[in-house]
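[job 0412] stage=fold_complex status=start
inputs:
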Amino acid sequence: MKGENALHLPREKSRLRLRQFIQIGLITGALVLVMTQGLGVFAPKAHADSVPTGLPASPTCFAPNPCIQKFTQPMPRFDVLPRNAVSTLVPAPTAQANTTQQAVDPALGGGFGPIEGRPPGAIWAHQGFTLFPPQVAVEVTQEGAKINNVYNPGVPASLNSGINPATPFHPRFHPFAPDQGPLAMWTFNGTLPPKLVIGRYAEPILFREHNKLPVNKAQNGGFGINSISTHEHNGHHGAENDGFTGAFFFPNQFYDYHWPIVLAGFSTINTGATDPNAATPNDTGGKTNIAGDWHETMSTHWFHDHMFSFTSQNVYKGMAGMFNIYSAKDRGNEAINDGVNLRLPSGTTKSWGNLDYDVNIMLADKAWDANGQLAFNKFDFDGFIGDRMTVNLVDNPYFEVEARKYRFRILNAAVSRFFKLALSDGSPMIQIANDGNLLPHPVTLTELDEIGIAERYDVVIDFSRYAVGSTVSWVNLTKQTNGKKPDKDLSLQQALGGDPNDPVVGKFLEFRIVRRPAVADASQVPDPLIPNPVLPAVTRSRNFEFGSGGSQTTTGSTSFTGPWGIKTDNQGPTLDADYGRISAGPSFGTTEQWTLQNGGGGWDHPIHIHFEEGQIIARNGSANNVPAWEKGRKDVYRLRPSGSVTIKMQFRDWGGMFMEHCHNTVHEDNAMLLRWEIDNGGSPFLRPLPTPISTPQGVTFVAPDDILPTAF
Amino acid sequence: MKMNRGLSRVVVVSLLSGVLILGSLFISSHSAQATVAVVSTAPIVSTVTALTSGTAPALQTGLTEPVTFSGPVVVTSTVVNDPALGPSVVVALDGRGLKATGGTTGTVYINECEANLTRPFGATDVIKTTFAFYEDKPGGYLNAKTAMVTLNLTYDTATMTLTKVTGSVSTL
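[job 0412] stage=fold_complex status=done
writing structure:
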């Protein structure tokens, strides 16, 4: 047998060796996959139209605890992040990326690399850093789940369903469920509830994010990746602060995001800051005029991971928070009557930014495994649908309210699911904002439209119509059993009965009217709210068709292949994502008309365009098809099956590379994403912009690997 | 050295075979799970206006009088017959043309009956959706009430067009 190999073995032994050979191969290959992808590669495969997608039903009993029942735990308010002095940041923030070198963990390749993961040099320097120097520092980590000992809901316990913020807050979906492990859930600061940033116009924020995730990317609990990029959705900021999908950073690095918080048009409109409607609240109840167009005032943003090809997994793991932006119009104080303040439900204690009656709501369907740990199926490219409804990342809670008006800032933070909300008694709600922008006029609805992924609907509910001691619930009317699109919108009566195939249909948040307000409700819901800005004439039109059957024409680390893609301007193939490819390059300052076309037949795609807000001027070719709640400004445009949306946008104030993609993040991650850029606004920008290539050892640049013929 | 070289070869080839086997499994799962709608058809759009009427009783609305509704509800169906997914329909309805009058005072009410509903496609469909209505005066929307419209839709399943709609207004 000395020196033998399989080729010299007798036939019987050769078969044995072949079997062993395959076994060794499988084991070795499996180990390689586990080392590179984590244990999630062996998650159960998807079964068509089952909820949760391709996974067993989430268990609701964890012995020795009682089984989880709906409405048995309070809904926590968001955890308000501290607003610190910029001087607390060490090292101090810099206009260009801080390239001070540090040793890189061997698991990340070793050697040395920069402490900040932002691409270096002038092109990725903070635009307007001198003009809008940071005044507030918000410093966070991204890390594995742990207990929160510093929960700050921003309101007293009486306005937070009795939750004592001094009690350690566990990272779990229900008190009867296990804590999430540090590999299963990754969140800002590693804790729950989800985080809220409070900001106001003309008070620039330096958002410093430290990556404290495991250096070994296989330590991911089965899904997610440890390199990250945070998108401030939908900030009117320079691209270096937008969370570009290719500008990601690694464990032990930080990234400084500079959010100047300016009104769009600040460089061309109302530059003398004379318009009293364009203003920001001060700390004494007054306001200070600022430059820009007040018709572009924004209110409800969110921020979330945007890692190339991993957004769905990372956001699902918990990498999402919200950002309330206050202005003289949307003050967060309902009592100040100065002719500018809209006096929306909020509170009166502080001069601005009261959260008493202004509640952030994050909706997300989830699933968990037999151990109660967050579970995800990353092999179904249609999308992922969970079987447990969470609100602010807890399962089917209740929320105590006073008998008065409340504002709710509803965010759909799901991966692939649409929600349609109604109150269980059919009472009206007043929609005041869409995608963070106050509407021109309030819209009174008993059933909201389907809220697409990443869309935000702000609504006002008047609980004064209810008796103290009574309850009313939010109900999800949309049944959805796969990532393709909603199955069906049910009637309220049907939805109240639930659906055997979709546990997320039905009541999911119970409002408990616990008392009359101690102070009279001073809030208003005026009409008009914020009229649309008048944009310059359109100088160019573009067309983007979102569909399946995408192909890839490039290779390399910026390029990805998946079933989805985007065809631009009716030319060439439907292309898979490549953030090294420039698909559009609108000229600085101009207004363009973009038509977003669903080329995917019966599918639905909620399309997000970064950076600029758009006005929908037609649906399926007609202005008459634009519903009342979409007549303001938006940043997510759901196409509906075979539908189209035509919008106009002005590209101004800032430059750099941005994105456009489906916000069904599974579609996005599997190649339905493109890069566009504004690069002719003057130095330091180049046309075209070089593409950053991020590594733990530093960021290098390469020329774009493709520029579509109609881009410029 | 000979043995080591042989062992190395086995490991390398084994690794390659493992990657190939797992790769093929991954690809098969990939193709199995991604439903690729390569072919799609243009949407089939049809509109029917239904003259609709009905009453929202005071007891249900909380108003001091019944409110009578009468007028058109415009129903537009957009059917997409995706070969990979089967037919589906989005029903847009616009009942803002409904005239509503208080039975006692003659007060005029306006409404925001506008909706886009995802529905399965079939020969018939019954849609029940609620909507808000309120007194036609400044700030009237702050005291809105709820009514419900029931629509019976009939389709020509061959052409996938909407052929008939009847409707009524009531309350929950």
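[job 0412] summary: The two ends of chain A are 69 Å apart (CA to CA).
[job 0412] exit 0
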